[in-house]
Structure formats: C-alpha cells, structure tokens
Specification:
Elements: E1 7-12, E2 34-39, H1 47-55, E3 60-65, H2 76-85, E4 100-104, H3 110-127, H4 134-232
Parallel strand pairs: 1-2, 1-3, 3-4
Amino acid sequence: MGEVKTVITLICERAADLSSETGESGHLASQPGVKVVKFPCSGMIQPLMVEAALNSGADGVIVCGCQIGDCYYREGNKMIRDRLLGLRPPGLKKADRRRILALWLARPQKDRFLSEAKDFQDFLAQLGDPAKPAAKAAAKPAEKAEAKPAEKAEAKPAEKAEAKPAEKAEAKPAEKAEAKPAEKAEAKPAADKKPEEKPEAKKSDKKKTEENAESKAEGNGDESSKKDDKKDE
C-alpha cells in the first residue's frame, strides 16, 4: 500500500451523517487520513479556509453541503458552491483546484460520502505531493530582520553624533567671537577721532578774524598818518 493522503473535510452538520464513522479525534474509522470538521451550515465555509488547509500540509480538501435546493438556511450551500466556482466573492485565490472536491449530499447518504472520499484519496496519490510555498515566507522576514535594522542602528546615529555637533561647536562660536568684536573695536575708535578736527577748525577761524582785525587797524593807521601829513602841509 502507498502512503495515506491527508484530506480535510469541511461539512455541514445536516449533510451526510458521519457521526457513527468518526471517533473523538474527528478522523474516519474506515479512512484514517480523512479529518472531519463540522459547521452549522456550509454557507459558513470560506475559500480562505480551504486555502489554509492546503497551505498547512493537507493533500486535499472536501467541501460537503446539503443537496442544492434543500438548505436549512435557504441558500448557504449555493453560496459556497458559487464561491468555489468563482461566481461569487470571495473566491479561491491561489489553490490547486484538482485538490478540492465539492459534494452536495442528503443526511442518509453516508455511504456515498465514504465512497467519494476513498476515490478522492486514490486520485491524490496519483497527483503526488503538492508544492508547498512555505520556504519563501520564511526567507523574506530573515532578510528584513537582519539588513534594515543594521543600517538604521549604525549609519544614521553616526552622522548625527559626528557631523552636526562639530559644526555647532566649531563654526558658529568662531564667527561670533572673532567677527563681531573686531567690528566694534575698529569702528568705534574711528568715530572718536572726528571731534578732534572741530577745535582746529575753530582755531583757524579765530586766527582769520584776528588777522582781519590787524589789517583793518593798519589800514586805519595809514589813513590817519596821511591826514596828518596833509595838515602839516
């Protein structure tokens, strides 16, 4: 005998009655590879559940609901049927449809279910092991966890700690300490020298007025002497 394939069965509790075939673990006694999970209605089964079962290592998935048109909740079985066929969202995204079997059975059709499940296991054995994309999901987080935090922890703090404090400590205080006091020390004494020129200007004006007064006095003296000479004549 070959390897027994694992099949997850998502079944409505009002569909084929498997209570006499399942033990406490939920596996069928006659087919140990078949695990049964019951729902109040097949309309509660979502395509994501089917994909999750396949991604977790199941070789195949059986979805079983009531006969079409005989749903206790009116249209639950139609809803999941249309989702599996891609006629109603949400549908299947990434799943091998060959590994999914849909059955619509009434409660007394237990033997029909067991027969279909056995044939499905044999079909899966012919397909071989499914491709498992779990390795990609494990590799990508490892790259993010190692590469990116290392860049942030080493590169950016080094720039802040070395470059910016050096500029503030060396460049700006030097400008304030050297440039501004030099302007005050050189500019103000130049302004203090200007008042020294004014006294010289005043002195020169006084000299001019004195010279003018002397010249006038001499002129008056000459005139008076001339008048005296005329009188003597």
